[in-house]
Design a protein that fits this description.
Elements (H helix, E strand, L loop, with lengths): L1 E5 L5 E5 L9 H4 L8 E5 L8 E3 L5 E3 L2 H6 L5 H23 L2 H8 L5 H27 L3 H5 L12
Antiparallel strand pairs: 1-2, 1-3, 4-5
Helix pairs in contact: 3-5, 4-5
Length: 159
């Protein structure tokens, strides 16, 4: 598919459904094409909501970083998604070796004291690590800062 768009506003003016393999000329794409005010881009599939044209005249979706830089997406929104993601990761990691029923049994004092202490230390380590990550997320200024966060949740019961 060929897309004719306004150079200044990026408003799509015309869509020609011809396959790009046909290699049409601008006037074959749209008879009203004006090269001073318009540009042509190619698109294999649907046009993304937020797009740009690459060096080969293909329409490509803006990256998340580009959406943030252009104010389309707020970094704070991404920060909240990261917090939710790390919270889920913490729970999944913990459940992989310390299921909920063992925590409940610990609270009910079913286990001997030493085993219960290991459970408590492990839960506290998860909490501490999540708060460390949350602080890094809150202080992040760029998407790169967020992407460079490395979690260090426990993978076994702690002494």
């Amino acid at each position: 598919m060929y897309i004719v768009f306004d150079k200044q506003t990026k408003e799509i003016l015309w869509k020609n459904p011809a396959p790009i393999t046909q290699q049409l000329t601008p006037l074959e794409i749209w008879q009203q094409f004006n090269p001073e005010k318009m540009s042509i881009a190619k698109c294999e599939k649907n046009i993304p909501e937020f797009w740009k044209v690459d060096e080969n005249s293909n329409i490509i979706e803006l990256t998340l970083e580009e959406k943030i830089n252009e104010g389309i997406v707020k970094l704070d929104t991404i920060k909240n998604e990261y917090k939710i993601g790390y919270s889920r990761l913490a729970l999944e990691t913990r459940k992989s070796f310390l299921p909920d029923y063992k925590i409940l049994n610990c609270c009910l004092k079913i286990y001997e004291k030493n085993y219960s202490i290991k459970i408590k230390h492990t839960i506290n380590a998860f909490r501490k690590e999540y708060y460390r990550i949350e602080s890094l997320i809150n202080n992040a200024k760029t998407l790169n800062d967020l992407n460079n966060i490395t979690p260090n949740f426990p993978t076994t019961l702690l002494e």
